[in-house]
Amino acid sequence: GQLENFPQATEYLDKAFTAAQQIDNSSRRAWVLTAIAETIGQLENFPQATEYLDKAFTAAQQIDNSSDRAEVLIAIAQTYGQLENFPQAGEYLDKAFTAAQQIDNSSHRAWFLSAIAQTYGQLENFPQAGEYLDKAFTAAQQIDYSYHRAEVLSAIAETIGQLENFPQAGEYLDKAFTAAQQFDDSSDRAEVLSAIAETIGQLENFPQAKEYLDKAFTAAQQIDNSSDRARVLIAIAETYGQLENFPQAGEYLDKVFTAAQQIDNSYGRARVLTSITQTQVKFSYWRQAHNTVSKCPTDECRVESLAHILTGWAEKKNPALVDKKSD
Prior knowledge:
Elements: H1 9-21, H2 26-42, H3 49-61, H4 66-82, H5 89-101, H6 106-122, H7 129-141, H8 146-162, H9 169-181, H10 186-202, H11 209-221, H12 226-240, H13 249-261, H14 266-282, H15 286-294, H16 299-317, H17 320-326
Helix pairs in contact: 1-2, 1-3, 2-3, 2-4, 3-4, 4-5, 4-6, 5-6, 5-7, 6-7, 6-8, 7-8, 7-9, 8-9, 8-10, 9-10, 9-11, 10-11, 10-12, 11-12, 12-13, 12-14, 13-14, 14-15, 14-16, 15-16
């Protein structure tokens, strides 16, 4: 798959398919088929890519073990996302959704659905993104085990942040918020809310960013488990640092700082305060950053936070250091 201009590609892929079909052990056959799918994605100027992905898809469907089948199907879905000029994306994703529904094991199904959702974010010029996000939401809601459902919903939220020119971002973030609020388990809710907060920081030209971070903040405050609440607050604090033209950053960080003080778990509180300090440094809020450090409950928090302040100060005084770091 690393060779460019490989005219014998089809010949060698045919041999690989024939060899795979002769392997009785399903996990070994899955391993070979996965390698074939990954190779197809690496080949440049390979017009038969979709034809050979069809072969891989058919071969995967003949594997009885759902874990092994899911492994191959995930590799195929990821390869779809690597193909340029892929007008049949919708057709192939439909096949992938159908295959996912045939996997009984919720863990394996969630694994595959997450890969399908992530594929959307890799596709360029995919006008049906909203339609397929709806399908992913519906499929996720049909997973009984909440941990695996949260896994898929997090992947969907992350995909929203990867889509370019996606004017319905707010609408689909609302759906993700609604789905997150339906979890009884605070860990699952925190996982999805953290993914939503991180997604907000990735969206370009999203004027409602602060409004949606407010929603995430309110949702975080409703989580009883302090470690899970800390996880969401960290994601929110870090996302503030990614927003451009954010004159109210200090005010919003003060809210997270106050919320951090209410976390009983010293480890969770320390992690939130360290994230707040790092974001305060990005905005050159030096006094507030030092105040945050003064509230650190652990030595690790103090050391790491002070390191952020010292590094940020040095880079501000010597901009050349930033260029060196990026190199």
